[in-house]
Fold this sequence. Notes:
Layout: E1 4-7, H1 11-22, E2 26-32, E3 35-43, E4 50-62, E5 65-72, H2 84-89, H3 98-109
Antiparallel strand pairs: 1-5, 2-3, 3-4, 4-5
Amino acid sequence: xxxxxxxxxxxxxxxxxxxxxxxxxxxxxxxxxxxxxxxxxxxxxxxxxxxxxxxxxxxxxxxxxxxxxxxxxxxxxxxxxxxxxxxxxxxxxxxxxxxxxxxxxxxxxxxxxx
Length: 114
């Protein structure tokens, strides 16, 4: 999956577009550098139970505007500067999955144990 670019877009307008697209599910968002983190609240795809997870939009400038690449915890964000309060707001993932390993690295980045 690649980046979605918008000709003439500014960084601020791309952030607004992403948050608008994520809609009510995005209960909190924060831009850190060119990482836009969002705490998502929805229903678990397998069980239908309430579920929260962290998602990331990598922001990037191009010659004609700004764009983004959306990722969630299961898709391999290698960035670890997610807000600590978002990490603490979500339930633990399965012990061996990518998301669980990513969260451990993100907590370590903040200098705290999960």
